[in-house]
Design a protein that fits this description.
By secondary structure, the chain is an all-alpha fold. The chain is 79% helix and 0% strand. Helix 3 packs antiparallel against helix 4 and helix 4 packs antiparallel against helix 5.
C-alpha cells in the first residue's frame, strides 16, 4: 500500500512539473504567429506587380494580416516572461502600423515606399529572430 502511495505521489509530481509553462516555448509560439503574418506582408511587398492580383485583392490580404497581427498582439499579453511580452507587443504594434502604411501605399497605385516598408518588415523579423523565433 505504501509503495502505491509513493508511486502515486511521484506520478502527480511528474505530471505537475510537466504542466508548468516554458516561457521560451510560449515566446516562440507567439512569435511564429507574428512572423507568419510579417512574411505574408513581405510577399505582398516583393511581388512582381505585373503578376499579382489587382490592388483590391492585395488590400484585403494586407488588412487581414493587420487584423491577425492585432489579435496576435493581444495573445502576447498572456506571456509569462515580462521582457518577451513587452518586446513582442512592441513588434506587433509596429507591424500593424507598417501593414496600414502598406495598405495606404497600395491604394495610391505606386510602388513608392515599398523598399522602406520591406526593410521595416525585415527588421521586425530580425527582432523576432533575436527572441528565438526563426522560420
Amino acid at each position: 500500500m505504501r509503495r502505491t502511495r509513493v508511486a502515486a505521489v511521484v506520478a502527480v509530481a511528474a505530471l505537475a512539473a510537466g504542466c508548468g509553462t516554458d516561457a521560451r516555448a510560449e515566446t516562440v509560439h507567439a512569435g511564429r504567429e507574428i512572423r507568419g503574418q510579417l512574411e505574408l506582408l513581405r510577399l505582398v511587398v516583393t511581388a512582381d506587380r505585373a503578376a499579382v492580383p489587382p490592388v483590391p485583392s492585395l488590400s484585403v490580404t494586407v488588412r487581414d494580416a493587420a487584423d491577425e497581427l492585432g489579435a496576435a498582439g493581444q495573445d502576447v499579453g498572456e506571456l509569462t516572461d515580462d521582457r518577451a511580452r513587452a518586446a513582442l507587443a512592441s513588434i506587433t504594434d509596429r507591424a500593424v502600423a507598417v501593414a496600414h502604411r502598406l495598405d495606404d501605399g497600395l491604394g495610391d497605385g505606386t510602388d513608392d515606399g515599398l523598399d522602406r516598408i520591406d526593410a521595416e518588415l525585415q527588421g521586425l523579423i530580425g527582432e523576432l529572430a533575436r527572441w528565438g523565433v526563426t522560420s
